[in-house]
Amino acid sequence: MSDTDYVLAIDQGTTSTRAIIFDHSGSIVATGQKEHEQIFPRAGWVEHDPAEIWENTREVIGQALSRADITRHNIKAVGITNQRETAVVWDKTTGKAVYNAIVWQDTRTQPIVDRLAADGGVERFKPIVGLPLATYFSGTKVVWILENVEGAREKAEAGDLLFGTTDTWVLWNLTGGTDGGVHVTDVTNASRTLFMDLETLEWRDDILEAFDVPRSMLPEIKSSSEVYGTVEASSLLREVPIAGILGDQQAATFGQAAFDQGESKNTYGTGNFLIFNTGEEIVHSKNGLLTTLGYKLGDAAPHYALEGSIAVTGSLIQWLRDNLGMIGSAPEVEELAKTVEDNGGVYFVPAFSGLFAPYWRSDARGALVGLTRYVNKGHIARAALEATAFQTREVLDAVNADSGVDLTELKVDGGMTANDALMQFQADILDVPVVRPVVAETTALGAAYAAGLAVGFWETLDDLRANWQEDKRWTPNIDADERDRTLRLWKKAVTKTFDWVDDDVN
After folding, report:
1. I want to staple 18 with a disulfide (CB 3.0 to 4.6 A). Which of 33, 100, 223, 375 is the partner?
2. What are the residues whose beta carbons fall under 8 Å from the beta carbon of 111, sequence distance 6 or more?
3. What's 73's DSSP letter?
4. What's the rounded mean pLDDT across residues 115-134?
5. pLDDT tens digits for 31-90?
6. What are the φ and ψ backbone dihedral angles of 79, each rounded to 5 degrees?
7. Cα(159)–Cα(215) distance, rounded to whole angstroms?
8. Which residues does residue 67 pair with via DSSP β-bridges, in sequence order?
């Protein structure tokens, strides 16, 4: 390995696709990024164009290589990380998706969830797969496509359709598509489908039968760190091995070097996702968390995790910008929030896609409560930021209850960690220090680490631990009575979102 050797990570996220090149120290060398369209055909429906995502992937790879002034010969491996539950179904002979990708935030599959839950409840498969039946996961999205896209069921039964989350879609295209594309996913993404047995790490035929999804559609399940194939000949990265795949939240945990039992991280992105490493033990939550795969390195034993998933955090700030026009750019929300001393009694519960952990209430919808004539847009901006911290506190309480060990500090990453006011409030509400690393792009870094380990770019996990450096720390600075008061009012506000959706309400 020389000083001109690097690893490239493709981060296929909810709002954009990025290619980031990392050096051996884990530092960013260059980045390419391009947003893709957010498609909202109806209330509760969220879609992406898979063809646009693939085209953007090719483009951002070129941007990153150009900005680093290097070629494929400098790239030793490619890692992929992705929005995990977003489902793509495509024709393997044409390479075209039969329908738009149905995004993890989409709630259209609630009738399918209800149908499957009629025999055994929403936790029908949870002892096997670690997940409740919910619109969040990709399994019900595949069912919707098979049942609602003309000809899809027949093509699937004939073996002509493939399913994958966006890691699989990008990998298949990168490795040749219709000309020998590799149809593979890793254990972390497979664990978010509702189809994978946590113990065997294999698809469950009985569950596929219950969902009526042909097994031939599903990708092969591999570890998170091994060579899956090489980039096809027409690409700027031709012949470079693709050697790492991790779902975005597991990738961020890996990028934070939280490799061991008891370590955790919280990512602040479109949504918030707190992952707590439970080591080689499968821990089934009694407090509304998900049991999921943390990572699996080659032939080594898998590491499992508890996860608290929050649907709407950063996307609430986007909503203030795009739907209400309250701010012109996301960073402006902090300045607006600073114009007031407190939230003015306002609490904003952004249950736009129902409530995820720890409630799992698909019948919930967003609520802004406590409004008086005194309230101005500064209070609303502050309440929107505080909603992220309150939701994280509830998830962390569930983690502490399930694990039996109270977290002593929280490692954080993602775009919203640049917001000092939010991070200070987070520390105040949690009553533990909040710590941000120097390299905040831990999602892409985790994918790079997984790929680099597979090809020997990094030798051991200790090499990766040595790369982690603290950038900033926020310590609690709030009166305990005030913390308790605001938490009590937040929990009261959450109850106001319940039971909103009736059978005749979208």
Report:
1. 33
2. none
3. G
4. 93
5. 999 999 999 999 889 999 999 999 999 999 999 999 999 999 999 999 999 999 999 999
6. -115, 150
7. 9
8. none
CB 482 within 8 A of CB 446: no
Q: Which residue has the tokens 């980045």?
A: 31
Structure tokens at 461: 């996990």
Q: Is 30 helix (H, G, I), strand (E, B) or coil?
A: strand
In angstroms, the Cα distances linking 392 to 265, 274, 357, 383, 502 are 11, 8, 9, 14, 28
Yes or no: say if 168 and 189 are a contact pair by the CB < 8 Å rule: yes
- How many residues comprise the chain? 506
Which tokens sit at 113?
């969830």
Tell me what pLDDT residue 193 has: 97
Q: Which of 388, 260, 390 is nearest to 317 (CA)?
A: 388
Is residue 496 within 8 A of residue 355, CB to CB? The reply is no
How far is Cα 132 from Cα 74, in angstroms, rounded to an integer? 44
Residues 6 or more apart whose CB falls under 8 angstroms from that of 278 comprise 261, 294, 303, 304, 305, 306, 403
Q: Is 462 exposed, middle or buried (0-12, 13-18, 19+ CB in 10 A)?
A: exposed
DSSP letter for each residue of 174-190: HTTTTTT---EEEHHHH
